[in-house]
Every structure is written in C-alpha cells, then in structure tokens.
Amino acid sequence: MKEYRLAIVDDHKMFRSGLRFLLNDIPEMKVVGEASNGLEFLDLAANEIIDIALMDINMPKMNGLEATCEALKLYPKLKIIVLSMHGEEEYYDQMLDAGVQGFLLKNSGVEELNAALQAVINGGTYFSQELLVGILDKKKQKQFQNEVVKLTQRELEVLKLICEGFCNTDIAEKLFISHRTVDRHRSNLLSKTGCPNSTSLVMYAVKNKIIEV
C-alpha cells in the first residue's frame, strides 16, 4: 500500500488537531507537518516531501491563495484540497485558476475527507456537495459564463464522470472507449467552455445546471 504524505495548513491549532485525528483513520495517509499560514507551509514544503496539502483560505501573513500559487510554481505535482467555510465563495474562481484539485467544507466528516483524498490521488477532482448546493443558492452569484455551450451526448457522459471525480482511465473503462478518446473529449469540453482545467469544468457544469447535485 502506497503511503501519501500530507500537510495541514490552517491558522487554528484546534482545527489542525481535529483534522489530524480524522486522518488517523485513513491508513495510507500520513501527516508529515502542519503550518499556521502560507509562509510556514512554504518552509515546510522546502524540507519535506508533500503529496497533498489541505489548505485553509483565510490565514495571516500569507493566505491560502498566495500559498497555493507559490507552492504550485515550485512543486507542480503537489495536490491541493481547499478547506473552506460557507461565505468564502469569492475566492473559489481564483483558487481554481491557481490549480487546486478540490474543495472540502471544514465541517466534513472522515468519510467525505477520505472520498476527497481518494478522488485527488487517483487523478480526479472533488467538491463538497453541500458547498456546491450553497453556490447554486447564491442569488447574487456571477454567471460563470454568459452562455451554456452545446455539448454532445458523449461529452455530457464524460463531463458527468469528471464531475464525479473519475480519472481518464476510469472514464475510459466505464464508457468502453479508449483513453485517447477520453483525452479528446476532455480537451473539447475545456475548449468549448473556456475552462482552464478540470476543476473549473466541474464548477461550470454545476453553476449552469448541466449536472445535478
């Protein structure tokens, strides 16, 4: 069993302790360090191999957005899952553009935490369903794109599986098509929607009610 090295980045010590306790129930996950702000995380990353960072948004000295941008420049293979609370939606598009793989509400239990981690390490993305529903309920939210694009039936099938966190290999197996065909459909989806990455694609699909949550 491969072991994945995690860092917890949050300015509240009690929250970090609680999250570490939850991670003890996920055998292949090992917490190798904690940080209370982005600067501490960058110092930690310079001295430890980190596969996944669980990243808070609002922190002193250097916030989660700045830390994510800097860390992914230095360590492009690093996976980052944002730890969020309701009311922080203004940061989501920027975090998506920075390259994060998922969003997890801070009140999530161990099952959802594990689901998010498994999705990300398998090359997929993860969004808390409660968080997505909250975004849809925001009356003043800005439209992600002016018009919903026209997608083929196969593109819709691929998009649905992307939104469920499946990687290209799994999508190919489920739809009985080649990995290369999935790559082509994913590229077409990104091109048609103007999304820079798969996580933005998920947000697009939800905001425009292409998929149901």
Structure overview:
There is one protein chain. This protein has 213 residues and is of the alpha/beta class. It has two domains: 4-136, Response regulator (Rossmann fold, 3-Layer(aba) Sandwich); 153-207, Arc Repressor Mutant, subunit A (Orthogonal Bundle), CATH 1.10.10. The protein contains ten helices and six strands. The protein has helices at residues 13-23, 38-47, 64-74, 92-98, 110-121, 129-136, 153-163, 168-175, 179-193, 198-207; strands spanning 4-9, 29-35, 52-56, 79-84, 102-105, 126-127. Strands 2-1-3-4-5-6 form a six-stranded parallel beta sheet. Helix 1 (13-23) links the parallel strand 1 (4-9) and strand 2 (29-35). The longest helix is centred in the C-terminal third of the chain and has 15 residues, at 179-193. The radius of gyration is 17 Å and the shape is globular. The two termini are 32 Å apart. Residues 139-146 have low confidence and may be disordered.
Going by CATH, the homologous superfamily of the largest domain would be Response regulator
**Physical arrangement of strands within the biggest beta sheet:** 2-1-3-4-5-6
- For this structure, the CATH topology of the largest domain is Rossmann fold
Poorly predicted segments: 139-146
- Number of helical segments with 4 or more residues: 10
Radius of gyration, whole Å: 17 Å
H/E order of the elements? EHEHEHEHEHEHHHHH
Keywords: DNA-binding, Phosphoprotein
Domain Response regulatory: 5-121
Domain HTH luxR-type: 144-209
GO molecular function: DNA binding
